[in-house]
Specification:
With 343 residues, the protein is mainly α. The chain has 2 domains: 2-107, no CATH class; 156-334, Growth Hormone, Chain: A (Up-down Bundle). It has 16 helices and no strands.
């Protein structure tokens, strides 16, 4: 995780200082796996530290991410207002990542103390260097695995985990729900300009409303997650989205569209933390496997934005975004009816 953070800082600095396309491309390529090691493994460590509180931890995690999504544009606007460009903004991001890296290094879990000298002398090379998996999948993750020294899963174990109905369900939900989360966020600005005929300034306000309402929804779910079952909240939210999203597409008056967008963003804020927490809970003591599956599914799910763009080119953006109405319907159909929490 710390090595990934160091590469993240280096890649952000390289982007800011790049003077050629090749350097810029290599910096962004390095950023992708490095951010996975830095961010995804930090998330896994949070899940391992509280096996019975995955939903609460993911709610707090998602709130922090939404806060960053809102601060990012403000940071860029501040740098531009001071006469800077995008290059100093990336340097500021590198400095912020440096603060996070130092915090992770200082506050991270301590390593296990070395074995006593007499034990090390008697058995300098362990007979079995690979620790055995917990006998009971519901047992908490051992301390030596929680700090990143987990046993490497075999191909057979990965296949068995993927065949689990619960794990497959959460992975499908993760990618389906993203159509109405990140994919919609990526297209909402151009939709407001090209389809709703809003000015670029009003479209920017629409994107800000989308991010701000999402932040408010994340904050509300932090409190709600302490007592509400995630699958139940997910299903209620999906029902609301089945009504709100078509209304957003069909209402002609721009202020009403933006108001509906705000309510929709607030209502679907719980989707990612509930679904990601469900994935971790379906793989007790195997946070590394959960990170692997979610990353692999994300690569496959990248076809979603591409499909929307392809349909928009062929049939228009209205029809492309209209197709996203299947997302809340599928979430409602696939979401489990009862919570399964590992205690």
């Amino acid at each position: 995780m710390l090595i990934g953070g160091a590469v993240v800082i280096g890649s952000l600095a390289a982007v800011a200082l790049a003077r050629s396309y090749v350097v810029l491309m290599l910096a962004f390529i390095a950023f992708f796996p490095a951010s996975g090691a830095f961010v995804s493994l930090t998330q896994a460590a949070l899940m391992d530290a509280a096996p019975g509180r995955h939903q609460q931890r993911m709610a707090a995690w998602n709130l922090a991410g939404s806060f960053g999504a809102v601060i990012g544009p403000l940071l860029l606007a501040g740098v531009l207002a001071l006469g800077g460009s995008w290059r100093p903004a990336y340097l500021v991001l590198a400095a912020a990542a440096g603060v996070g890296l130092v915090a992770a290094a200082v506050a991270g879990p301590a390593r296990q103390p070395p074995a006593p000298a007499d034990r090390a002398a008697a058995d300098p090379v362990p007979a079995d260097p690979v620790p055995a998996a917990p006998a009971d999948p519901a047992d908490p993750v051992p301390a030596d695995q929680a700090d990143g020294d987990a046993r490497r899963p075999t191909t057979r174990e990965l296949a068995a985990a993927l065949r689990s109905a619960g794990t497959a369900r959460w992975l499908i939900l993760l990618e389906v729900s993203d159509l109405l989360l990140d994919v919609l966020t990526g297209y909402v600005g151009i939709y407001l300009v090209d389809v709703a005929h809003a000015s670029p300034a009003k479209a920017a306000i629409g994107v800000a409303i989308r991010l701000g309402a999402g932040l408010a929804g994340d904050a509300a779910f932090v409190a709600l997650s302490r007592w509400a079952a995630g699958p139940g909240v997910l299903r209620v939210s999906a029902v609301a989205a089945c009504v709100l999203y078509p209304a957003f597409l069909l209402v002609p008056w721009l202020p009403a569209r933006l108001a509906i967008l705000a309510v929709l963003s607030f209502a679907t804020a719980c989707w990612y933390p509930v679904i990601q927490a469900g994935l971790y809970t379906s793989l007790p003591g195997q946070s590394g496997v959960a990170v692997f599956f979610s990353s692999a599914a994300g690569l496959l799910g990248a076809a979603g934005p591409l499909a929307v763009g392809f349909i928009a080119q062929r049939a228009g953006l209205t029809w492309a975004l209209a197709g996203l109405v299947v997302a809340p319907v599928l979430v409602l159909v696939i979401a489990p009816r009862a919570a399964k929490v590992v205690r």
